[in-house]
């Protein structure tokens, strides 16, 4: 799988949303993340999706923060996900599955903070999403890629965007040869290698 860095030039080549289009035409984005301690990460990802033209937004977050986020981000739908005693998301539920059926793109990872529940979510999304629905893996979701079975990891190909920062790249490729600055792996190459 080849990696393609997202550059200003690439973004300038993308069309702007049609101003006359309705929210239904602009597409629906589902953001899956937001543990009790870190719900703001899911909110930031969702607001970014709206700013770049998404017509509808759904935030799937820990049950305990679903109500407050519905008030804080009234332009979104909000789904509560099961959580453990620490407020970490434990995995998917039927409410998430119903929203997946209507999603045109899915972002998973912002604000997740526990590996077992995150792995359940990522595996569930990869197995359940239609192949034509783009999937963005961010933050903690990147950390579980190495632990996914090969057949599940193979489902990333051709429809996934992986967004590691430098620290996440170091986690994805702990033994990577240095590229660029010192011993730091290139984040785009780390993401591509983790998805293989």
Note down, in words, how this protein is organized.
This protein has helices spanning 8-12, 23-26, 39-51, 63-72, 94-100, 115-128, 140-143, 150-153, 166-172, 187-195; strands at residues 28-32, 56-62, 77-81, 105-108, 135-137, 160-162. By secondary structure, the chain is an alpha/beta fold. It folds into two domains: 24-161, Ribokinase (UDP-N-acetylmuramoyl-L-alanine:D-glutamate ligase), CATH 3.40.1190.20; 164-196, no CATH class. The chain has a six-stranded parallel β-sheet, with helices on both faces. Helix 6 links the parallel strand 4 and strand 5 (135-137). Helix 9 (166-172) packs parallel to helix 10 (187-195). The N and C termini lie close together (7 Å). The mean pLDDT is 89.
Structural key phrases:
six-stranded parallel sheet; 196 residues; alpha/beta; UDP-N-acetylmuramoyl-L-alanine:D-glutamate ligase
Provide a compact summary of the structure:
Helix content is 39%, strand content 14%.
